[in-house]
Amino acid sequence: MAPALSVTGLHKAYGPVQALRGVDLEVGPGELFGLLGPNGAGKSTLVKVTCGLVRPSAGDVRVCGEPAGSRAAHRSLGYLAELFRFPDWCTAAELLELHQELVGSPGGVAERAELLALVELDHVPDRRIGAMSKGMQQRLGIAQALVGEPRLLLLDEPTSALDPAGRRTVRALLERLRERGVGVLLNSHLLSEVELVCDRVAIIDGGAVVAAGTPAELSHAGGVEIETAAGVRLFPDAVRADVPRIVRELVAAGEDVFAVRVRTSTLEDAYLAAVGRTAEGEKAA
Amino acid sequence: MNPPTEWQAALLIARFALRESLRRRVFLVIALLTLAFLVLYGLAAWQAFEATGQFGTATSTAGVDTRVVVGATLAGLAMFAILFLGTILAVFLTLGAVRGDADRGLLQPLLVRPLRRRTLLLGRWLGAVAVCVPYVIAIALATFLLTDALGGWWPDRVLAPLAALGLGVAILAAISLAGSVVLASTANGIGVFMLFGAGLTAGLLGQIAEAIGSDTLGDVATITTWALPFEALYQAGLAELTADTVGITKLALSLGPFGGAQDAGPGLWFFSLAYLGAVGALAVRAFNARDL
């Protein structure tokens, strides 16, 4: 089976500005893939190229094996933009019906009811979108993206307007999608959320992938600190399994060991290190 | 999963646009304002026929059929106003269709569906045309009926003026839609109305050129009119109102504000359709090249 998303050597320039500089990544069927990066890193451009809204300058992007932007690719994807808006005059059910007709979904009323129930909007199918809160509109946006059973879901900041309960609902939904084999590219600033749900993560900065791996791989690279009579010594590349060997070597060398601490960084630490910024938000020199 | 064909998708977009117009009470506003326009027109027609009736019932002493002169002038005035109203409708239904909707985030969710950009443009144009064209035809027909009822005058030709108005606003809707691909809503609206004004000015220039016999002015007017064929269509429609009128009455008509109109012949209709196609092709080309 073709990957849900395959990106190879993707470049995009807006005039003199290089938004993407040779991005490679792959999202498998049923994989939740997190895309992290600072503002202006190129995340939204990557998502828009995948949707066919922006033309790449070079490289290849395929959705379920089909070239991004083609009708065949569009049949396989669902998308919720970061800055989206739906017609305020129509109702939730009417919006879903329009998207059902555009994608050719035979789901009818049953599909609409199921999708609205998934995002907990089944009690307001006939409410005008203009009368909905921002959080409700965002949940409706997720339902809209799921019309026609897409095999790849692109979610650009899907929980930015949601309260904690709404975020939990979306997390549960993403896990159900994983079980159904839907690949998800989740673009988010909420690192804790990405850490909780994503199978793999790529950190993008300056238009290039600067780190990639599972959340565990990215967030446990803090090294080992050992307190000796000569002071605290840091072994930055060491992990927990290296501790007995390091202690043995230090003792054999005549050092007194008083304490050992395995540094477990968070995904946030890994993110800040990868994009070259300090926790205070300053760009590292 | 069978996505709709291109035509089905275009009709779907058009239907959605029409539903928006209905829901936003666009039609209600149009109906009320149109009613006000027709009442004013009826009042003007009644007064005009009453006043000129003092000179004689059918012909004046100079042999001019005043009933024809008044009726045709009123109908010409009505066509001018109706073209303007149709233009307002066409522009406001399309001025933000691409860039405006893209800036607001309304367009992107639609274009990630199996929907070609050209289909979206076609759908938006059909949606606007489905409102504007029946509107101008219906209101023009209403003014003709009023003129007949109040003064006993009926145009020599009816179909050609109605078709000219319809095709004219369809072209203006296409220009506005094409403009919406590259211009922000406000700039596009201003631009289309300035083009509309330029077209009407070209028509007036043509009449002045004919009156004073200036070839240069006539050439400028002709080129501008062909570059903006909605004006040529309006002139052709106007000319058809009194196509069978002859003699001193025709001469009297030609001295009036709507009397210098000329029918450009059947070539104008083919040119207008080709122009419509060219505007559409340019709009699609620009839209396809645009990052959203």
Describe, in plain words, how this protein is organized in 3D.
- The complex is a heterodimer of chains A (285) and B (292).
- Chain A is α/β, with parallel strands linked by helices and 285 residues long.
- Chain A has helices at 43-51, 71-75, 92-103, 108-118, 134-145, 164-179, 191-197, 215-219, 243-252, 267-274; strands at residues 5-14, 17-27, 32-36, 58-63, 66-67, 77-80, 152-156, 183-187, 200-205, 208-213, 224-228, 231-235, 257-262.
- Chain B has one domain.
- Chain B is built from 12 helices and no strands.
- Chain B starts with 5 loop residues before the first helix and ends with a helix.
- The interface between A and B is medium-sized, with 34 and 25 residues.
- The number of helical runs of chain A is 10
Largest interface: A-B, 34 and 25 residues
CATH architecture of the largest domain in chain A: 3-Layer(aba) Sandwich
Q: Give the spatial strand order of the biggest sheet of chain A.
A: 6-7-8-3-9-10
Q: β content of chain A, as a range? A: 25-35%
Secondary structure tally: strands of chain A = 13
Strand content of chain B: under 5%
Largest sheet geometry of chain B: none
Main sheet attributes: strand count, strand direction, barrel closure of chain A:
6 strands, mixed
- How far apart are the first and last residues' alpha carbons of chain A, in Å? 45 Å
Order of helices and strands of chain B: HHHHHHHHHHHH
Number of domains of chain A: 2
Number of strands of chain B: 0
User: And the CATH topology of the largest domain in chain A?
Assistant: Rossmann fold
Number of helices of chain B: 12
Helix content of chain A: 25-40%
Please tag this protein with its features:
heterodimer; A: 285 residues; alpha/beta; Rossmann fold; six-stranded mixed sheet; four-stranded antiparallel sheet; 10 helices; 13 strands; elongated; B: 292 residues; mainly alpha; 12 helices; 0% strand; globular
How would you summarize what this structure contains?
The complex is a heterodimer of chains A (285) and B (292). Chain A has 285 residues and is of the alpha/beta class.
